[in-house]
Amino acid sequence: MILPVFGANARETFTLGDAFGVGNGNHAVAMAKTQEVGVTNGGNETFSQSLAISTSVVGANASNAELVADTAQALFTQAYNRNQATSGVNLDEEAANLLKFQQAYQAASQIISTANTIFDTILAAVR
Question: Which residues contact 49 (CB under 8 A, 6 or more apart)?
Answer without folding.
Answer: 40
